[in-house]
Amino acid sequence: MFGLDTDDFSIAVASIFMKITGIWTSKTRIEQYTRTFATYYTIFMVALCIFVQSLDLVRGGLDAGALLYTIVNVLCASNDLFKLFVLFVYKKDFLSLVVHLRRQFLESDYDAYERTILDACKSNCAIFIGSFTFFTHVTLVGYILGPLIVSIGKNESDRIFPFALPPVPFCITPYYEITFFVQALVVYQSGLCHFCVDNILCIMNLHVATQFRILQHRLSNLKSENIVDDSVTRVRTASENSYITFKRCVQQHKMLIAYCNKLEEIFSLIVFAQILVFSVLICLNGLQILVATTVGRRYTSLFFLATFFVQLLMFTYSCDGLIQESLNVAPAVYSSPWACLPMNEHGKMLRKDVVLVIMRSRIPCCLTAKGFFPISLETYTKVWSTAVSYFTLLRQTMDDLESS
Known about the structure:
By secondary structure, the protein is mainly alpha-helical. Helix content is 78%, strand content 0%. Helix 5 (112-151) packs antiparallel against helix 6 (175-220).
């Protein structure tokens, strides 16, 4: 499900990388065993990345650029491993959301206008997922090829790795090539965890927000034709049909609210961890650009900073859309033709239900940082503001230490 056979670019890309990490749906027993192997392989690789980098910190003797490089790697890998563990714990609920996304959001029947809304959502998803995946892969290529290019023409004792290791015996052929290949696998698998979870979360958020827009369209255009006909039976039928349509909209609204609550249950802890480390990682990565000793590492850090820019924007924009579109249900249901319905049994019931829907819609659906605060575009500005403050403080501290 959700592979190369789909015409949705963002879902095709996200599903492929989620399959590589192992947390995805499976149809056959062989696929189930493959997913299990991929999950444990990913956990092992990311844990190995953290372990090797932590040893580099313990050994000490690093200059400012190497120290920042190692700290950023450890923080990113630790955050990625944490996201993987959370999804592993909620794997069953997460996969049920994926199945629901396919069956209820993508394979439902839509009219021409609703199809236009859905196509716009797919375009936004493609832009975000494509940009984030591209910048992440450029960064990974820099992490892998940078040390390899620097090592060309050097003595065996001067060769370097993506992750620092003792010079002997790993720098001697063929141990160097074997060790470098293993580290390249570790880097790439850790990089997959960095963007695959955020990709699928963005897709889910944007599609739920789109479903709220479709719901607004359906509420604003309740079928109420022929309600002024002189036939009493015809009036009663039109009123009843409008109420039946309205009930379907209410059921869809309840389903979307339940979907958002499940998203909050699964991803709130991940969101909380993301917000905690974003400012620190942006700050340290900015400093790394200034103090990097090689051109390759400087450009790698620059692309890594661009990755954070796209990641944070994608993350907060999708959550903000969820808030805004869920709030817009209230004016949409108020603008529906409920006032044109006669004051019969179904007309009175519909008017009462309209009030209830408006009251419920005043409470927005949102993702929160473990309940502390909702995530919106305002969070985007606050994170960058905090990161700039940290950067200014650390930069001033480094200048004072150099001058003293």
